[in-house]
Amino acid sequence: MPAIIIPIIIIAVILIFLAILFSFIPLGLWISALAAGVRIGIFQLVGMRFRRIPPGLIVNCKIKSQKAGLDISTNQLEAHYLAGGNVDRVVNALIAAERANIALGYELAAAIDLAGRNVLEAVQMSVNPKVIETPVIAAMAKNGIEVRAVARVTVRANIERLVGGAGEETIIARVGEGIVTTVGSSESHREVLENPDLISQTVLNKGLDAGTAFEILSIDIADVDVGRNIGAQLQMDQAEADKKIAQAKAEERRALAVAKEQEMVAYVQEMKAKVVEAQAEVPKAMAQALREGKLGVMDYYNMQNIQADTDMRSALAGNEGNAQSE
Predict the structure, then answer these.
(1) CA–CA separation, 272 and 284 (whole Å)
(2) Reduced DSSP (H G I as helix, E B as strand, rest coil) percent helix, strand, coil of the chain, to 5
(3) Local structure of 66: helix, strand or coil
(4) How far apart are CA 321 and CA 303, in angstroms?
(5) CB of 65 within 8 A of CB of 91?
(6) Facing residues of 29 across strands?
(7) Distance CA 27, CA 324 (A)
(8) Residues 6 or more apart whose Cβ sits within 8 Å of residue 172
(9) What per-residue confidence (pLDDT) applies to 25?
(10) Residues in the chain, pLDDT under 50
């Protein structure tokens, strides 16, 4: 019994060792590469394991590129993977560019991919242009009428400017600026409604694709509508503001007049108080004059008579005035 168990154990250990060995050494990939005519050594595949590079990805990309007639070395593929790039997408983009007769080298494709752009989508866009639709852009003509327009921009990827070139947001912003400029320079909104192609011509003549990753092929106005009468609204707002300013100034003048009137009333009351105070001093002064002999008794009575005569004349004059008025 022990003699039978020992060979079984040895065979099991050998099988386990072979399983571990062949799981680490991609022998199947090496055979597939040889069958496809790709020269890649078994030790290169083992080295990829140590460098934590998936051998299957590199071998498949190498087979695709060689079958497509592209000369891409294994080291280039490994370097791009270690740099954080998408190796499979780069190879697919190079194959698509080769089929479409687009000049695209491996270094440029790898640089575009590492820059964060989809190089395969860029190649596809070079063959099949993309349509970018702008949001509703509002602008005001010189007559104060608002015009709301939507444009469709047909663009094609510019492979050479994909690295460092501006994106779709810049195209949309520049087209919006062109629409605002065109509508704003029109004398009336009717000119824009009658000839919407004025917007397209103006925008295209500005060369809005400069410095971007795209080439503008055409700009079409998809929709144009009349919006609010902004000029009239602004005039109404200005009139309302002028009215409030005039009301504020009138209130200020009224308050100033009331203050002056109150000041005059206070002044009159102060003068009356001084007159009353002065009249109150008259008897004291007369008494003082009598005591000092400066005023005689007859003089005092004469003065009283004169005052009584004056009061009587004033009363008679007042009665005559009332009678005449009646």
Answers:
(1) 19
(2) 70, 10, 20
(3) helix
(4) 27
(5) yes
(6) none
(7) 140
(8) 132, 134, 135, 153
(9) 62
(10) 1
CA distances, 80 to each of 48, 68, 120, 147, 218 (Å): 13, 19, 16, 50, 36
**What is the model's pTM?**
0.54
Contact 133, 156 (CB under 8 A): no
Quick one: angle between helices 230-292 and 297-325, nearest 10?
A: 150
Nearest to 169 by CA among 204, 222, 132: 132
What are residue 57's phi and psi, to 5 degrees? -65, -45
**Contact (CB, 8 A) for 150 and 221:** yes
246/236 Cα distance (integer angstroms): 15
Label residues 283-292 b or e (16+ Cβ within 10 Å = b): eeeeeeeeee
Nearest Cα neighbor of 208 from 151, 135, 128 is 151
Q: What is the pLDDT of residue 1?
A: 46
pLDDT computed for residue 298 by the predictor: 67
- Which amino acid appears at position 213 of this protein? A
List the beta bridge partners of residue 157: 214
Instruction: Measure CA 224 to chain center.
Output: 23
* Cα–Cα distance list, 62 to 43, 55, 181 (Å): 16, 10, 52
**Sequence-ordered strand ranges (E) for 141-270:** 145-157, 214-229
As beta bridge partners, residue 151 has 221
